[in-house]
Amino acid sequence: MKEELERYIRNLSSPENSLLAELESESNQRVVQPQMVSGHVQGKFLEMLTRMISPRKVLEIGTFTGYATLCFAAGMPEEGIIDTVEIEDELEGIQSEFFARSPHTHKIRRHTGSALDVVPGLGECYDLVFIDGDKREYPDYYRMLLDGGLVHSGSYILADNILWYGKVTEPNIKPSDLQTRGIVEFNQMVKDDSRVENVIVPIRDGINLIRVK
Ligand SMILES: C[S@@+](CC[C@H](N)C(=O)[O-])C[C@H]1O[C@@H](n2cnc3c(N)ncnc32)[C@H](O)[C@@H]1O
């Protein structure tokens, strides 16, 4: 999308709150690949969707520095809980620092480890799930959720980076490009699954919005 249009969308959307703006700026300075942060417009979109769904139990796969976690927590009802799972333990410092400063900190449960190992042990069934971990593992996350009974009829799943910078439409995806292959397999698997309905929303790098029937 043209930079000018992106700026227009940002300027004509509600402003980013100061804690999120600071987290984005700190992410830029303190961690590698800061572009993984959801950011202002997508973050606001996630918060608004969460307000609409009003989930009691939310799961996030791939916390990173916690930007999206804070957006979900802000949109959830007071009694809501978000389990957020991150494989890299060196991110714990920045996550804890910013989660502690949020007025919604009591809703956040942080877990370190691979989501594929951690989540089944949490014994929860989720109303809303954000898939944003390793792109190669998206099909495994989906199987874990749907076949493992971790979502119910009426649950929503949001999967991020579903257009993978446009690579999903390339005619010859290299066998070694496991991330693009993971996303392509995931999108097809959702499309072919009669247990769900879905729509791909072209916000930022694309979100697959899935509802369990
Ligand atoms: C795109 S970033 C997440 C961004 C974050 N959700 C946000 O919107 O600000 C992806 C994160 O997933 C983590 N990750 C990768 N594989 C994982 C796994 N199996 N379980 C949990 N986290 C994983 C990575 O270390 C990385 O921090």
- The 3D shape can be described as globular
Query: What's the architecture, going by CATH?
Result: 3-Layer(aba) Sandwich
Query: Would you count the extended β strands for me?
Result: 7
Assigned CATH class = Alpha Beta
Q: Uncertain regions: pLDDT < 50 for 5+ in a row? A: none
CATH superfamily: Vaccinia Virus protein VP39
Tell me which ligands are bound. S-adenosylmethionine
> What would the CATH topology be?
Rossmann fold
How far is the N terminus from the C terminus?
Answer: 33 Å
Question: Main sheet?
Answer: 7 strands, mixed
| Multimer state | single chain
Structural class: alpha/beta
Q: Indicate the proportion of strand residues.
A: 15-25%
Radius of gyration: 16 Å
Q: How much is the average pLDDT?
A: 97
Count helical runs: 8
User: H/E series, N to C?
Assistant: HHHEHEHEHEHEHEE
The largest sheet has its strands arranged as: 3-2-1-4-5-7-6
